[in-house]
Amino acid sequence: MKTILVKPLITEKNTLLQETLNQYAFEVGIKSNKIEIKKAIEKKFNVRVSHVRTLVLKGKKKSQMTRKGRFEGYRADRKKAIVTLHKEDKIELLGNIE
């Protein structure tokens, strides 16, 4: 079974998207598609999803010096989904913080 929703992405930019455009960002499984993402979010949060956009973030090249010489590799690729909800729906990711 493949993982569809990995975690919500909570950043300053994503919080602004939530407040203004009712869009939420999630890190999703690299092999998941838009239909699966839409169904998973509707089921988990009990909301209506109107639009899903996805993008793949390629892993950065990393190099590290070790005693035996230089080691080069890459970070893993990640996939991100930006989900637009129906006007009347909201998701409480952090709960009430006061």
Top keywords for this entry?
elongated, 2 helices, four-stranded antiparallel β-sheet, 6 strands, alpha+beta, two-stranded antiparallel ribbon, 98 residues, 40% strand
- Let me know the largest β-sheet: 4 strands, antiparallel
Kindly, what is the distance between the CA atoms of the first and last residues, rounded to a whole number of angstroms? 38 Å
H/I helix tally: 2
- What is the helix content? 10-25%
Strand order of the largest sheet: 1-2-6-3
- Structural class estimated from helices and strands: alpha+beta
Mean pLDDT: 90
Strand tally? 6
Strand content: 35-45%
Radius of gyration: 17 Å
Order of helices and strands: EHEHEEEE
Give the quaternary arrangement of the chains.
single chain
Catalogue the unreliable spans: none
Description:
- By secondary structure, the protein is of the alpha+beta class.
- It has 2 helices and 6 strands.
- The strands form 2 sheets. It has a 4-stranded antiparallel beta sheet. The protein has a two-stranded antiparallel sheet with strand order 4-5.
